[in-house]
Amino acid sequence: MDPEEFRKRGKQMIDYVADYLENIRDRRPYPEVEPGYIKELLPDHAPNKPDKWDDVFSDIERVIMPGVTHWHSPQFHAYFSTGNSYPAIVADILSDAIGCIGFSWASSPACTELEMVVMDWLGKMLDLPQDFLFCSGGKGGGVIQGTASEATLVALLSARTKMIRKLLETGDYKDQGQIMPKLIAYCSDQSHSSVEKLVCATLGTTPSCAFDNILEYAMSFNFNPHKWLMVNFDCSAMWVKDSQLVSDAFNVDPLYLKHDHQGKIPDYRHWHIPLGRRFRSLKLWFVLRLFGQEGLQENIRKDVRLAHEFEDLVKTDHNFEIIGEVKMGLACFRLKGENDRNEMLLKAINEDGRIHLVPSKFRDIYFLRFAVCASRTTSDDVKFAWKVIQELSRKYLSDSSNENIQNKSS
């Protein structure tokens, strides 16, 4: 593919992406394929000679789309939202073209310095304590991790390193092998699965969007712009009050990575697990500039309004109940009664295919989660989802009632 062919095919793909996103409402949110479906559609070996572009392009709909779960469909209400916007997509194109591996300032100064700026912008938008920001002049600062799971592991390993060194200094232990088995971490029983063995308080838990009490004594803070800030995956923002605690745990400093400005500015390879890193701050920068704080705030407020609208609809039906308090873009609900009723209802909803939900549990109570996931979701989509849920629940309740009558008769 030469430059002219790239221009032509790139424009074709941009048109395809725009058409896909603007018409995504017409696609079934969850695929109907069975495991191994792609193997039946493709040869068992790579082509010896180049395929034609038109053949590759046509296989997007033939091979890929039948197996895609459409996270940005207004009928997708599972998990939590995942960010998506045209500015972020355009920024990713530029990031991929630049193709730098920004492990240090010297490897691409703009990659490091833009990340420092936008992480301070974002920290100020969240009203984080000054200690977490580069501009405070202290040891704090922010870094873009790939996922919150990575950020949590970074925080845990940093805390572990700090505690091991502290205990070794007391002279009570000979080596870290004596200390490791004694270390204990705590987290909420509603914390994300990736932190089941970590020290973690959570604002908006995954199962039910519950909130732990967060104090300013926290040494690190993490959230995902790739969930609610219109930024495409992956972009997980992490701030620390003392970056030295992180670099002490992850310092990798071979001669070939050293540079003349070392120590004057962060080398992000010391702030996370991988050595290499993408120019992810570009998409955050594009989004913050092209939406502005007010545009992002309005999108969040819209999703919260829609979650409350769904909550109000649930409360009109005496067969259902709301679980927990609706605070953000998630409403948890269930059919009153035993868990198996709700398991059957969820199965019926996802087999029906018009909308897609996932369940959760809290203290052995099984419930369904209705998350406002897509930026294109409207009030009509919420009403449509509730109509589907009611239709299928009534059918299930009717079938169950008939079955009970038949059992009594027999």
TrEMBL record:
Cellular-component GO terms for this entry: cytoplasm
Keywords: Catecholamine biosynthesis, Decarboxylase, Lyase, Pyridoxal phosphate
Its EC number(s): 4.1.1.28
InterPro entries: Aromatic_deC, PyrdxlP-dep_de-COase, PyrdxlP-dep_Trfase, PyrdxlP-dep_Trfase_major, PyrdxlP-dep_Trfase_small, Pyridoxal-P_BS
Highest taxon of the lineage: Eukaryota
Cofactor(s) in the UniProt record: pyridoxal 5'-phosphate
Molecular function per GO: aromatic-L-amino-acid decarboxylase activity; pyridoxal phosphate binding
Pfam families, sorted: Pyridoxal_deC
Keyword Cell cycle: no
Enzyme class: lyase
GO BP annotations listed: amino acid metabolic process; carboxylic acid metabolic process; catecholamine biosynthetic process; serotonin biosynthetic process
Residue numbers carrying N6-(pyridoxal phosphate)lysine: 227
Family: Belongs to the group II decarboxylase family.
Oligomeric form and interacting partners: Homodimer.
Protein name: Aromatic-L-amino-acid decarboxylase
